[in-house]
Amino acid sequence: MEIKNEDFPEVEIVEETLPHEEKRQSERLTQEELNSLGLNPLLETFPIGKKAIKIFIFTLAGILGILLIAGFWALGLDVSETLVIYSQGKFIPSEEGAIRVAFIDDAKGFIPIESAIVTLRNAEKKKANEAILFSGMVGFNDAGSIVMKMPDWEPGHYLMKVSARAGKIEKSAVFSLTLDPLFEGSPYSTSITSATEKVNKPEFFDTESGIRIELLPENYVLASSLHNLIYVRTTDTTGKPVKCRVGLKLASGYINGSIPDVITTDSAGLSAFMIYPAVNFLSLSVSLLNEEGKRIGGEGVIDLPVEPRIFRLRASRPWAKEGEKMDLRLFSINRSNPYYLDIYRNGIWIYADGGYLNSFSTQISIPAPEKPGIITLQVYGSPSYVGKGVSSIHVLIGKQDEKIEDAIKKVARMLIKENIDAQYASLVLDDKIPIYNTNAQMLLAMLLSRLDKGFYEPKIFYTTRKTDEKAIANIKNRIKRTIIISLCAVSGIFAVAVLFMMALALRLHSPFAQKYKINTTTAINGETFDKNHHDYSIAGGETDYGMGTRKFFIALAFIAAIIAAFFGLLAILFTYLKWTFVF
């Protein structure tokens, strides 16, 4: 609005106009003046000074940086090694029991265990009935084998703690197991009794002579590329053993080495020979021969089942006395295979061992179990896969004063019970098959080989995987909550600080800011008029534009309080209600 003289003829108008250059600069503030309006005046008058403000800013930046690093670190957390326990979960008080422990890495696979400590305690009373079952080295296999003698405690549930170490890796697992004097063991996971034999038995019956010739592999199935023992059995039409001369020839397939041309069975109708199949099929031609070696009657071809195997286990003797050493021979298709050896009695895992082979044939000596009975020994190459790689045999553990004749009849009764080769076994019980010192070992070994075979799969009973994943998840959640709480606190402090500095700057420097708001003034009888803003005040008085600085400061403080309360509420929720979120 422009004030003219004709509008006020009775007064004298005195107009003060700023020079052109000064007016232009007053309308456009320089950068230096803008700085003077903001931080610089504040730094000059704020009590804590420039260094304190810089420290404050750098501290906030550092905290935010640490929080970001912690967040990315939490994202990378994952379960690396898992402690795995192979066990049946049940044991008989005062008897042997076996478990196997292993570290499994998702990327590297098995990590060899070096040492372990196994303790057992009452599940209800933490410090009562605690016993150390094992403490020491467990070898350097992928999985450590542990043999324990269980304490003579009451039947019930107990807690077993296994602490294992492999290099810098140490983990513990606590799990529940049962002491049960009536535990009957586990059945075979899979039977390896030859299905071919059940349908088409490996035998030839000569109609002219009435003699049956049977070829019985020691493990029902021949293992290709390994040494195998085949029993030859000759019986008449009633199943009674007959001493015979049998001619052998290779009909089809390939073998390493050779087989005998003629083999003679004894008074129990038994003999045996070794064979080394090179491929997964094999047929042998058999015939009866007279004393001059001429064929009697017809000639038959017997197909033998052959399957790939990694190992072939054989005992030097088919039986051992309790407490003695048992000598075993382990054949392998590889020179440096790791192996795992288990012993089961009535389906109960009582012994575990293992090692590394240094040749294709390795001698192994282990203690015989203390309790008499028929035991099953099995060997395989990996605790994570048993399957067809297993080799299984039976050995009879007898009392110190037990005779081999009694041991043979014990096995015969077992065969009759399982309805395997019952006709021949009944002849043994009826003393219709003569037992001599010369043939007793072979007869016992053949009878043991006729027992059903399979493998007991040591299953994973407990793993720390879920516990480790839960612990990692808890760590991540704690880190996330810490980050959220810290961000809330930092954001609240920063917001309050910024608002406080803005309010303080306006409070301290509002007169300095006001002088730039008046570009030109017009004086009329002692009153001044602002030509730009059309407002006026008494000359010499302060000009108040909009909200006063005191009210503005109060508003800023109120906003800062609301922000601080909001972030404080978030911090409380994340702290006490354990809120979380997914990155």
Helix content: 25-40%
Q: Shape from CA axes?
A: elongated
- The tally of beta strands, per DSSP, is 34
What is the fold-level CATH name, i.e. the topology of the largest domain? Immunoglobulin-like
| Structural class category | alpha+beta
Say which CATH homologous superfamily of the largest domain is assigned.
Macroglobulin (MG2) domain
What is the averaged pLDDT score? Answer: 78
Strand fraction equals 35-45%
Count of folded domains: 3
- CATH class identity of the largest domain: Mainly Beta
The major pleated sheet works out as: 5 strands, antiparallel
Cα-atom radius of gyration: 47 Å
Number of helices: 10
Quote the distance from N terminus to C terminus.
61 Å
CATH architecture of the largest domain: Sandwich
> Low-confidence spans: pLDDT under 50, at least 5 residues?
11-18, 23-31, 41-49, 512-525, 528-547, 579-583
Summary of the model, kept short:
With 583 residues, this protein is of the alpha+beta class. The protein has 3 domains: 5-75 and 472-576; 88-181, Immunoglobulin-like (Sandwich), CATH 2.60.40.1930; 184-457, Immunoglobulin-like (Sandwich), CATH 2.60.40.
